[in-house]
Design goal:
It is a single chain. With 339 residues, the chain is an alpha/beta fold. 44% of the residues lie in helices and 16% in strands. It has a domain of 231 residues: Rossmann fold (3-Layer(aba) Sandwich), CATH 3.40.50. It contains 13 helices and 13 strands. The strands form four sheets. Strands 3-2-1-4-5-6-11 form a seven-stranded parallel beta sheet, with helices on both faces. A two-stranded parallel ribbon has the order 7-10. The protein has a two-stranded parallel sheet with strand order 8-13. Helix 3 packs parallel to helix 5, helix 5 packs parallel to helix 6 and helix 7 runs parallel beside helix 9. The longest helix is centred in the first third of the chain and has 21 residues. It is globular. The structure holds nicotinamide-adenine-dinucleotide and 2'deoxy-thymidine-5'-diphospho-alpha-D-glucose. 2'deoxy-thymidine-5'-diphospho-alpha-D-glucose binds next to helix 7 and strand 8.
Length: 339
């Protein structure tokens, strides 16, 4: 079986490719990635010589290139991770989010129809549901919670979900959708909360916490997300949405303090900065459906996952130091300078 993984040079996609090649060594994995600022071929380098792995640099919005790749590889399954994924960047410049996250997903689905893929899986996010109040811990997102996106990023992801469901209904394209909570783990680009705080703490730089730091996210170790997608591909019924999360809600400020403790750095490095525009208060996933229908449960406890993640960033400084020393500096100055 050939599986096409788009966005496989990014954080979750790269972890998924490694996971898939281990779990399904007889499959062929083709990765299509544009290598935007967030894509890093060095993450996939150890796999490049393998017979059953191919990397192709390309844009999911480029219909001719996508069709040519489908014609050549005839993937049975397509998993779409390719996206612009950072909320703050979507607030700064939404256009590319609409292009990649909506139009690109449409191009891939058209190719799946044209070349007869037996599954298109859209990797979506809990952010499509908007947010929950901080004082109602009883409320969780279920698959039937109405879509109520807050940022250009989440609106673009919600649009792709709607398009996927429309392709299922109208054309019978066998789509599935997973809506996962915040991931953490190795190879996450250092603009996101956990790696950013680790990198800054190690450099004794200020740790910029938005607003009061009381916003809550529901954290899942990236490998558990990969296993959930595998379970959906093998047992999930087409046309279905599956929420993925591990009941692990944490306040941002508590995550930041935990990282500082683990690195032996002082809390005086914390700096509260101007809040993100439209900042979602709380995300919390109810994963009852994927558990009941597919038997999926998270395997990594947060204490273990975060320890492993901090250690990974300590042991793989070359991977992220190269990133933070390049164009990322301009981004950091734009986003945080004078904030
Ligand atoms: P990421 O930003 O680390 O990686 C995105 C990858 O997509 C990069 O390799 C980039 O080069 C590639 N890409 C971007 N535009 C492309 C295009 N036009 N054509 C081809 N490739 C392109 O993102 P991530 O954190 O790994 O997230 C992957 C997916 O999972 C996204 O769809 C995101 O919405 C979703 N998701 C992420 C999280 C999370 O916590 N990170 C949680 C739930 C869902
Ligand atoms: O919930 C799933 C989503 O999680 C994914 O769909 C997105 O692709 C992914 O980026 C992530 O979105 P968030 O906006 O939740 O992640 P981020 O790491 O940007 O921020 C996490 C929280 O930390 C959020 O409340 C904002 C806050 N934050 C973030 C940064 C970068 C800070 O306080 N300071 C920071 O410098």
């Amino acid at each position: 079986m050939t599986i096409l993984v788009t966005g496989g040079a990014g954080f979750i996609g790269a972890n998924f490719i490694r996971y898939w090649l281990d779990a399904h060594p007889l499959d062929r994995v083709v990765c299509l990635d544009k290598l935007t600022y967030a894509g890093n071929l060095s993450t996939l380098r150890p796999l490049l010589g393998r017979e059953n792995f191919r990397f192709v640099r390309g844009d999911i919005c480029d219909r001719d290139a996508v069709d040519a790749l489908f014609e050549e590889e005839r993937p049975g399954v397509v998993v779409n991770f390719a996206a612009e994924s950072h909320v703050d960047r979507s607030i700064e410049d939404p256009g590319v989010f609409l292009r990649t996250n909506v139009l690109g997903a449409g191009v891939l689905m058209d190719a799946c129809r044209k070349f007869g893929a037996r599954r298109f899986h859209q990797v979506s996010t809990d952010e499509v549901y908007g947010d929950l109040p901080l004082d109602r811990p009883d409320l969780l997102f279920s698959e039937t919670t109405p879509i109520h996106a807050s940022s250009p990023y989440s609106a673009s992801k919600a649009s792709a979900d709607l398009l996927a469901l429309a392709y299922f209904r109208t054309y019978g394209l066998p789509v599935t959708i997973s809506r996962c909570s915040n991931n953490y783990g190795p190879y996450q680009f250092p603009e996101k909360l956990i790696p950013l705080m680790i990198a800054n703490a190690l450099a004794d730089r200020e740790l910029p916490v938005y607003g009061t730091g009381e916003n809550v996210r529901d954290w899942l170790y990236v490998e558990d997300h990969c296993r959930a997608i595998d379970a959906i591909l093998s047992g999930g019924r087409p046309g279905e949405i599956f929420n993925v999360g591990g009941h692990n809600e944490m306040r941002n400020i508590d995550i930041v303090r935990l990282i500082l403790r683990r690195l032996g750095k002082p809390e005086s490095l914390i700096r509260f900065v101007a809040d993100r525009k439209g900042h979602d208060l709380r995300y919390a996933i109810d994963p009852a459906k994927i558990h009941a229908e597919l038997g999926w449960l998270p395997e990594t406890r947060f204490e273990d996952g975060i320890a492993r993640t901090v250690d990974w960033y300590l042991e793989n400084r070359g991977w992220w130091e190269e990133i933070v020393s390049g164009e990322y500096r301009n981004y950091y100055e734009r986003m945080y300078g004078g904030r």
